[in-house]
Amino acid sequence: MLRRGATVLSIWCVINFIFAFTILCYVIVLKQNSPILQVASFSEAEIAGLSARTIAAFNCFTILYNSCSLIVSVLTWPLIRKNLAAGERSAFWTLLFVIGFVEVMAFLASSYIGHGRWQVNVLQSVLYLAGIGVSGYAIFSKIVNYKKTKHAKQVRTLFKEIYPEWDEIMLD
Prior knowledge:
This protein is mainly α. 83% of the residues lie in helices and 0% in strands.
């Protein structure tokens, strides 16, 4: 179950990375204007009416946001694949707050443009909530069940036979 949660969060990382990388290439390499202008439903006439400084500001913020988003994906990938998949609670809490903050801010930022990219935000949020929820359940249900057992020593012996790494996981 923990691996499933880590896999779902890894998919979140890959999608986030692809979107950010694509937008950065679009603005930097292809020298196009920020896609936010189309997402915010600006007409061609409205875009033409914007000053060069306003468009440059849009492009600047697009580059800044997407470069940070890309780096969050790169930095959380090994944390998910190595630490969270191993059942480390510190990795869970870090990912809960870091990715959770990014998702909340994505919805907040999108609200200023009439939720023009709501499909992407919903997809990313569903992946995040599913991944972090399954991972959290897998990590913390073992601890709760282990500590609430009346006959913990007997249970521990039984689990050690079935699952040799049990003590290592419980001591993390």
